Amino acid sequence: MCADSVNDAVNRITAGTLCYDNSIVSHVIREIDSKLSEHQLGENSVVESMFQYGMELTVNLMKKVQDQWEKENSVPAKLESNKENLRWYYFMMVSNGVAKTKLFATYMADLLEEHIIPAFENDMVQRTCRRIRNERWLYDARYMQKHMDLHLIDLLERNQLDQVLDYLRNPQWFYADVLHLLIAQKVPHVDEQWRSFKNRLRDAISKAAAVEVDKEKAQTFVDHLRKEFLDGYLQSEILGSAFRIDCSGEYEDCDNEEKEEFQKTCLKTLIEVLEKQEAIKDKNKFSKQLSPKVVQYMKDVNDKAALPRCDAFCQLCKSLCIEAANHDTQDRPHDAVHQPGGVAGLSYIHTDELVHMTCSQSYEDDRTFQLDDSTVSYLYREYAKVFPGWRNPRINEELPLREYILTTYNNEIAKKYNEKPSTQIPPSRTLSDIKEQLEREIAD
């Protein structure tokens, strides 16, 4: 358990890190020390072993992070990605006798322009995560199921049966689409956040440019700019990483520039780039495109209190796992509220009829199943052995919409999957009754 705590702590601290930073290592050391104190380990050998484990894990993770950063942000990589524009642009500036300070300021401005929008997107991702972390549909799988069912009802009311059946057959895609829609509705007001972001960025640039030095002007400006990006009100890892630059051997001539002129040129050039950035025009499109990034960020951070749903699903009836993403299947195996298998095209072995029962009902009735392209039969009682990492299907809860779909569209489903319609159709309520109940339960 102590090793698990150390592992979780290291992964949480390093999640989202874009490049190596000494402060991260210091944070890890403090956190490991805290975890060891919590577990009250007495033997020095065990304590030393846990520290060694934590540091090895940190080194491996940070090496991967740094390797990726170097791959994307090294001078050769940046020159390669923009080599034609950079080559001719800077060549013309130098050949025309442009002062070294202007050349340096232009390079800084180009970097800023390249990373402003990604930095804003990342800022919005984190703000959206904080905003949705207490939403019930994020952490309560059964509550999310109600939203998903309402989405299916909306499609049925618009005569989009094929889309409904495709969703039921591909639950990961289905869940992702509904989750992204719900997240998009919670993205903070884009215009307001864009103005706030620009103000904070403008303030960071102004503070960095205000630092007075007589030598190593370029490097000092870059260092203070990065510090403001990382530690000031902005706290942007993307901008901080972008400006992790070694200016030695390149811009010493900036020291020959008057101090005030150097500061004025850098400030003016960067602010001009900032001011010409246009606001996000299509707010709805921006929110939709941001949603998958929010989901990935939550998974990377792995905050147990704010995780989306696990996207594993039953290989028979295609019902999603009800546990949170990244859960340990040894401690908490996958589990599901199983639906009638026929809605996802599952058929009985000997009759080819659509399965009218759930996996849970089949478990209770001691029935059998076969895997695709197999002639071997397995008991539902052996479910957890056949599908390692899963619990036996013991949750037996009603899914009225799934029963309605099988009852109402029995023939259409059979035709879609080249099977026979079920002859044992379960009783079903009306679609309007089901919709009203779902809406009441979501409103409660």
What does this protein structure show overall?
By secondary structure, this protein is mainly α. The chain has three domains: 2-73, no CATH class; 98-128 and 190-276, no CATH class; 136-185 and 308-443, no CATH class. 62% of the residues lie in helices and 1% in strands. It contains 20 helices and two strands. It has helices at residues 2-14, 22-39, 44-73, 75-81, 83-95, 100-132, 136-139, 141-157, 161-169, 171-184, 190-209, 217-231, 237-242, 259-276, 283-301, 359-364, 383-386, 400-408, 410-416, 431-443, and strands at residues 368-370, 377-379. It has a two-stranded antiparallel ribbon. A hairpin with a 6-residue loop joins strand 1 (368-370) and strand 2 (377-379). Helix 1 packs parallel to helix 3 (44-73), helix 8 packs across helix 10 and helix 8 runs antiparallel to helix 20 (431-443). The protein starts with a helix and ends with a helix. The relative contact order is 0.09. Residues 86-98 have low confidence and may be disordered.
Please give the structural blueprint:
Elements: H1 2-14, H2 22-39, H3 44-73, H4 75-81, H5 83-95, H6 100-132, H7 136-139, H8 141-157, H9 161-169, H10 171-184, H11 190-209, H12 217-231, H13 237-242, H14 259-276, H15 283-301, H16 359-364, E1 368-370, E2 377-379, H17 383-386, H18 400-408, H19 410-416, H20 431-443
Antiparallel strand pairs: 1-2
Helix pairs in contact: 1-2, 1-3, 2-3, 3-4, 4-5, 6-14, 6-15, 8-10, 8-20, 9-10, 10-15, 11-12, 11-14
